[in-house]
Sequence to fold (92 residues):
Amino acid sequence: VFIYATPVDGSRMPVAAVKMQASDLPVTVVLNDARAMTPQAKLSDIELTHIYAIVSKEGGAGIKPGDFKAESLGVNVMTKDVVELVVDSLVE
Fold:
């Protein structure tokens, strides 16, 4: 399972991410700068993000046919609200 955030306008490279096992679900995850992929691309550097949760059929990163996904688009990074994702869409 990969849970990650990408900038709304720009790169698809995640600015925060966490990897876990499907057996860990359900789970509460906090995406922040501590989960940044690189020091040059942090969640705090952007205003809006897309958040994805992917259950990978093959265990690899990225979204591929046969995976399951959930997404929340256009989330303000300053929100204190919980963003709930339900992984129930099959990627075709």
